[in-house]
Design a protein that fits this description.
alpha+beta; Four Helix Bundle (Hemerythrin (Met), subunit A); 8 helices; 12% strand; rod-shaped
């Protein structure tokens, strides 16, 4: 993912978080705003009850048929609307929450008693009507009290919801602020890393270009020197003087060092496509070891298990050779090199550990940087080339100290 894509993703995440927070608050507020209309209808119950009582007082008892007051039926409709919710007069009433059902049931029970007393009153003997009217009035007052309690409970419930929403707003504000700060820091880090990578790439390009030109210029005279030296060795193969042998050996070692340095520089400058094939990891290790003259004082412990890996043989053998040479240089004369292979669910892991212990914790951050080296002779490109090749294969390389251990992780496929 490019830095631009990363930044767009982070900004998108921030926008999504803000939008979801806003929509959550809007939803909660709109939901409980609908419940707020229940207060209006619950408050209306008081007036409907009073109106019903007044209507019973003004009934014409000389009429042959006495009907229940219309306000009584409206009172029942009102109570059911508060309980079940619905739409009335273009107003939507939210269904009553379960927490308030007991208060509503008490109010409805008082309504039923009120309605019964009115029914008895309407069908009673005229001699008992005064007493029954008093009972209607008492049941009406009880219903008014329970209706007022229901209004109070709905109001308290909404106040709790309001407090919850306010607290939620504060929490979401804090979360959004923290996330915003973190995202700004992440974006800054991405931009900083991108700038550093760009500088590194430009530096690598300059190093590669200059290095490749120098290496090419060196190869021709080096070939002449090497050829002439081989001829001289052939003519003087029966050298008996120790001094001459030492001088010839010094020349030979110096030529090899120059070849190694030019090879490092050219390998760093190359960006060829991978030519992958399935190959034995252990076979690659053995071929890399065969490139070196291992002193009898250095013991190399080889892995027990072997795995097939899908790699560019030449390039990856170069990685293993570089790491083995690095370990040999760390040990100098006496010590052990332990090479191991194992696997996890997704990767094959190659580790090379040596007993040199010359690498320190402070050096770890720069170990894969170009031109950084702890050796007196070296380009400081070897490990950088290894890292470049491993990353081309979709793998990673890490190093730890005490003992010095390089770990290469390669995907199985």
């Amino acid at each position: 993912m490019t830095p631009k894509q990363k930044i767009v993703s982070l900004v998108g995440l921030q926008i999504a978080l803000i939008a979801s927070s806003f929509l959550t608050l809007v939803y909660l507020e709109s939901e409980w705003l609908e419940l707020g209309t229940s207060i209006d209808y619950a408050g209306l119950n008081r007036f409907l009850t009073v109106n019903t009582i007044l209507e019973t007082h003004s009934l014409d008892f000389n009429s042959q048929v006495l009907e229940k007051p219309e306000s009584l039926e409206k009172l029942k409709e009102n109570l059911l609307l508060i309980k079940e919710g619905g739409e009335k007069n273009n107003n939507f009433v939210k269904k009553l929450p379960s927490e308030l059902e007991k208060d509503w049931e008490k109010t409805y029970e008082d309504y039923v008693n009120f309605e019964k007393s009115i029914s008895i009153f309407l069908t009673s003997n005229p001699d008992n009507r005064l007493e029954l009217q008093i009972e209607v009035d008492n049941n009406g007052r009880i219903l008014i009290q329970s209706s007022d309690i229901l209004v109070s409970e709905i109001t308290l419930f909404l106040l709790k919801i309001d407090a919850f929403i306010i607290n939620l707003q504060i929490v979401l504000l804090l979360v959004n602020t923290i996330v915003h700060v973190l995202l700004v820091l992440l974006i800054f880090r991405i931009l900083n890393n991108f700038a550093n990578e760009k500088i590194s790439l430009e530096k690598f390009a300059i190093i590669g270009k200059i290095g490749a030109n120098i290496a090419h210029d060196l190869r021709n005279p080096l070939t002449v020197i090497k050829g002439s030296f081989e001829i001289l060795k052939m003519k003087n193969h029966n050298m008996e003087k120790t001094f001459e042998k030492k001088q010839y050996q010094k020349i030979d070692d110096s030529i090899k060092k120059i070849e190694y340095l030019t090879k490092d520089i050219l390998d760093f400058a190359k960006t060829k496509e991978l030519n992958k094939e399935k190959i034995s990891f252990l076979e690659l290790i053995q071929e890399a070891i065969d490139e070196f003259k291992i002193p009898s004082t250095i013991k190399i412990n080889l892995p027990i298990h072997d795995y097939k890996i899908h790699v560019d043989k030449i390039k990856f053998q170069n990685v293993i050779s570089n790491l083995i040479k690095n370990s040999l240089d760390e040990i100098c004369e006496n010590g052990n090199i332990t090479i191991d292979l194992h696997e996890n669910d997704d990767n094959v892991l190659f580790t090379i550990e040596d007993s040199g212990n010359t690498l320190s914790e402070k050096e770890l951050p720069q170990i894969f940087e170009p031109l950084y080296t702890t050796k007196q002779t070296g380009t400081g490109l070897g490990l950088m080339i290894c890292k470049k090749i491993i990353e081309q294969h979709g793998g990673t390389i890490n190093v730890s100290v005490n003992p010095t251990t390089f770990t290469v992780s390669l995907p199985k496929n």
